[in-house]
User: What shape does this take?
Amino acid sequence: MRIREYEIPDDLLYTKEHEWARSLDGEVLVGITDYAAKTLNDVVYVSLPSLDQTLKQFSSFGTVESIKAVSELYSPLSGSVTKINAELTTHPELVNQSPYDKGWLLQMKPSIPAEKKNLLSGKQYGELLSSTK
Amino acid sequence: MKRTPLHDYHKAHSKLVEFAGFEMPIWYTSVVEEHLGVRHHTGIFDVSHMGRVIVSGPDAGKYVDYLIPTMASTQPVGRSFYTLFLNEDCGIIDDLIVLKRAADEYLLVVNAANTQKDLAHMQKFSGMFTTSIEEITPTSTMIAVQGPEAIQTLQPFVDTNLKEVKRFRHIESDILGSRALVTRTGYTGEDGFEIILLDTGLANDSVATRFWSELAQNARPCGLGARDSLRIEAGLPLYGSEIDETTNPIEADLSWVVSNNKSSFIGSERFQEASKTPPAKIRRGVILNDMIPRKGFQVLNKNDQEVGRVTSGTFSPVLRRGIAMAYLESAHSEIGRSVKVKVRNSHADARVVKPPFYDETKYGWKRITE
Assistant: This one.
């Protein structure tokens, strides 16, 4: 799906704060949406949690920064961090270039799978973007 | 919200934000690309929101000499210079560029957010002088052409050989049928020019639009985002961040604007007093090894005690590091000193530097004009 210039893959789940979650081998890959990346403009710095750190659904786990602004990152689910995208240390611009693929932030092992019901579908996230300026 | 004569172009090509009551472009494509475009080639900026005021009349020189701490009346015609408006307590009311057009005519370029305050300040002290004050902001257009290729970009529009216009000088020219002032100044640290089109403004924007569109064929339009990161990299203060009515020129490291032995300007008594003792705090540059400093962050000494505050911070696209301007306690302000900046829960290692942050043999106007 596409809302204005923003890409919204149908097979992901979303937070209202513009993170996405993708199921992958029993774990979940997390990133920020095309809308978030374009709104920030150039991502120049990404601060991520360490491996094994425990995250809580909708709690802050790091920051993504552009030249002008700092934006908090919120975890789509509760769980523990199993991988982080180390590539972003030297190439934070991947978040802009490829928000849903090479610009992923971290992988986590969810501890409460039922929390997925608190997330938005692609369609619902698209409606949220349609209603924002 | 107020608009500039180039609003239609910005609306079609940029992301717009509110700034000082104007709807202005924050970026066209990417702040980093625009920033590096200015450092390596040339960028163009719509700065029409800045306040432009003409002071003229028999006493114009005497009046301007009273308003600012820099000698104006003794400067040659054609000179452009940076200076400050001070209040009687030596606090900074605004920073500005003055263009001396004639012995009896000066054009002042002030910050958009301060234009009305500055006009009130100027009027308050004009009574003793035979002079007139005329704001020309809405009836003129101002565009900055900045970067090492600025001369090549601008030369086709101007008859005068721009290589002969020295830094901090200006000429008058015709540009596409409008009278124009072309001053070799800017807010990026790079070589470049600021052009004031005197006959094209909001109500009559065709020459401004044509000039901008033709410039844009050879130079990259830049928004306020790049304007801010470029001026931080160059170490140039921003009103409201580094300077305001609670800071004086000595603390701001701007006392060089005060001409030697000049007295009898607004704020001069307090300036003389303040000059007798070293300032408690001073504006410095701070460069980090990792992480990005932001306005309000604390600067700490090696014992984690606060010794200063960041006033502007960003990521430097040239250095690929976090950089900041900060006020530091004088005892902790020497160049090269190791400090830390508190970035959220971390203490980032940092070093005190004297801006500009970049290597002046590789970037900045000195490599072009000196």
In short: The mean pLDDT of chain A is 96. The interface with chain B takes residues 41-42, 44-45, 47, 63, 65-68, 70, 93 of chain A (CB under 8 Å). The first strand of chain A starts at residue 2 and ends at 3. The longest helix of chain A spans residues 122-131.
